[in-house]
């Protein structure tokens, strides 16, 4: 465990933040101040941290004071020294006798090294400032006098950028630098030291941080960097968020080359702007139809597919997608992976839809679509390749980042595990169902006939309930099709045979699922008893948001 000697001049907010967060398991062994009135002392004592005071007497030289500080700290064991508003330049007397000493400066050094870093940044007109955690080095001459050019000149451990907004003043910028910036950077640096990831070369004046890795090829972090510095620009404020009482905005990443609803052109400018939910649903719909090379159409409601299909023509694909669940498709989002033609447009406006997304439109299609005043028509341009590797989900206090689920299977990837072999048509349907199921919230079950959906059971806490929901949707909501003879896809393994029993009752004749349950043998036996063909993918496709 790394123990820290903290030295502060006033409130010691960074030291207290480190004490409360204990980055890397580090803890404060002692807090030292130069005045008995420093508020940090009382705050440290409340946390059970020992304190020391070494006053700055008028007749004490720099060397004498540092020797007194070292004497006061001599009863404590510590591996790292952290300064926080310690308004005293340290010399080699202290630095050579103590472990590595860190300090934080409220700018991106070497820019603005002075006492009024945020004011200097505003005066210079820069758009970004921040803070720097650095190793403290001797900034005095042989007589103990301060060499201003060498203050805050030690090797940098880490930095945190903070944007400067139009209308910022010294107080507003100072607040963000001291809290948003320093409260991120200082604990990060302490954690690296606590984890033994930092190598300080005093002679070379350099710092190497093994933990601060960037993207890499075969590294176990798989291209996930240790820090994420993201700067997105606000594209627009939205009427509200998911609900009217929530404020919301959409931000744009202009480095993204992939077809995106954020960067799409809204062709009917007189229509309402996209809402928060429109953006979310349209993104889900677009990501789904990117799965297919054949003409494909999808209808999305609340980020779940109400229907999806591929066919020889776009109009036929849309008709099959819509017929899966036309009731749920009311007020949904339509996505197409081909230029929208008039025949498809005529079908789209036949019922209420919020948004249509496509990589282009014929003039005749636009004439048709524009008949609906508030149908938002988005042109995302050429679909091209899926280039964005990661997705993220904000959490309170952080965010989850993962690789996108870009898995794609073929019939060759399927392991048949039942006595009955699936037919060629069933194998083709399994592949279609699996690629579509990736976009259904878990627990997810999807029934497919050929390359069109028949029934979808999404977002259930029980897999067997998801099967029942898909069967109900197929029997009660689908138009001109049902579950009889269909293929069922499951986004994770069946833990018990009951899901297969429900599927057999619905008329399912083939199943594709990941496999891997301890009860696989029982599930396979149930399939064999009902004459159902089953294949394993060996990989699951959970989607939880």
Mean pLDDT: 94
**Helix-strand category:** alpha/beta
Order of strands in the sheet with most strands: 3-2-1-4-5-6-7
Q: Please state the overall shape, judged from the principal axes of the Cα atoms.
A: elongated
- Distance between the ends: 38 Å
Radius of gyration: 31 Å
The biggest beta sheet reads:
7 strands, mixed
Specify the helix fraction band.
Answer: 25-40%
- Which residue ranges are poorly predicted, with pLDDT under 50 across at least 5 consecutive positions? none
Oligomer: single chain
Q: What percentage of the residues does DSSP assign to strands (E)?
A: 15-25%
Helical region count? 14
Please provide a written account of the structure:
The chain is an alpha/beta fold. The chain has 14 helices and 25 strands. The strands form 6 sheets. A 7-stranded mixed β-sheet has the order 3-2-1-4-5-6-7, sandwiched between helices. A 6-stranded mixed β-sheet has the order 12-17-16-15-13-14, with helices on both faces. A hairpin with a 2-residue loop joins β18 and β19. The longest helix has 25 residues. The model has no long low-confidence stretch (mean pLDDT 94).
């Amino acid at each position: 465990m790394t123990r820290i000697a903290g030295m502060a001049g006033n409130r010691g907010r960074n030291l207290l933040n480190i004490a409360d967060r204990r980055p890397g398991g580090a803890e404060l062994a002692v807090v030292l101040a130069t005045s008995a009135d420093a508020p940090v002392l009382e705050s440290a004592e409340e946390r059970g941290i020992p304190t020391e005071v070494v006053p700055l007497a008028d007749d004490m030289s720099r060397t004498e004071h540092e020797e007194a500080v070292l004497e006061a700290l001599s009863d404590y064991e510590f591996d790292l020294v952290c300064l926080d508003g310690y308004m005293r330049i340290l010399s080699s007397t202290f630095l050579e006798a103590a472990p590595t000493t860190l300090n934080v400066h409220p700018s991106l050094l070497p820019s603005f090294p002075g006492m009024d870093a945020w004011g200097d940044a505003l005066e210079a007109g820069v758009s970004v400032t921040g803070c720097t955690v650095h190793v403290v080095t001797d900034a005095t001459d042989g007589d103990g006098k301060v060499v201003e050019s060498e203050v805050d000149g030690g090797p940098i451990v880490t930095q945190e950028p903070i944007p400067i907004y139009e209308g910022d003043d010294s107080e507003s910028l100072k607040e963000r630098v001291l809290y948003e910036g320093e409260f991120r950077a200082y604990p990060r640096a302490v954690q690296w030291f606590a984890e033994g990831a930092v190598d300080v070369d005093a002679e070379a004046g350099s710092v190497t941080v093994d933990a601060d890795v960037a993207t890499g090829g075969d590294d176990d972090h798989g291209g996930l960097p240790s820090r994420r510095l993201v700067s997105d620009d606000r594209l627009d404020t939205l009427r509200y968020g998911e609900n009217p009482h929530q404020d919301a905005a959409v931000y744009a990443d202009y480095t993204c080359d992939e077809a995106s609803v954020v960067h799409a052109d809204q062709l009917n400018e007189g229509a309402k702007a996209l809402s928060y939910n429109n953006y979310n649903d349209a993104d889900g719909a677009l990501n789904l139809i990117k799965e297919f090379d054949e003409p494909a159409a999808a209808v999305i409601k609340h980020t779940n597919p109400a229907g999806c299909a591929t066919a020889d023509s776009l109009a036929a694909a849309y008709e099959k997608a819509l017929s899966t669940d036309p009731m749920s498709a009311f007020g949904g989002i339509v996505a197409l992976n081909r230029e929208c033609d008039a025949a498809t447009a005529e079908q789209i406006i036949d019922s209420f839809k919020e948004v249509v997304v496509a990589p282009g439109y014929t003039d005749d299609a636009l004439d048709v679509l524009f008949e609906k005043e508030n149908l938002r028509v988005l042109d995302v341009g050429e679909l091209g390749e899926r280039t964005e590797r990661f997705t993220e989900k904000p959490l309170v206090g952080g965010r989850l980042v993962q690789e996108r689920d870009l898995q794609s299977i073929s019939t060759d990837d399927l392991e048949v595990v039942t006595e009955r072999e699936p037919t060629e048509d069933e194998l083709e349907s399994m592949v279609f169902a699996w690629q579509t199921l990736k976009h259904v919230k878990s627990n997810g079950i999807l029934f497919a006939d050929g390359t069109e959906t028949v029934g979808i059971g999404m977002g259930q806490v029980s897999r067997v309930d998801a099967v029942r929901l898909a069967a109900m949707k197929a029997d009660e909501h689908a138009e001109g099709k049902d579950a009889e003879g269909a293929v069922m896809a499951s986004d994770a393994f069946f833990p018990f045979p009951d899901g297969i029993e429900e599927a057999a009752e619905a008329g399912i004749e083939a199943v594709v699922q990941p496999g891997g349950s301890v009860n696989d043998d029982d599930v396979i036996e149930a399939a064999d008893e009902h004459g159902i063909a089953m294949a394993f993918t060996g990989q699951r496709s959970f989607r939880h948001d």
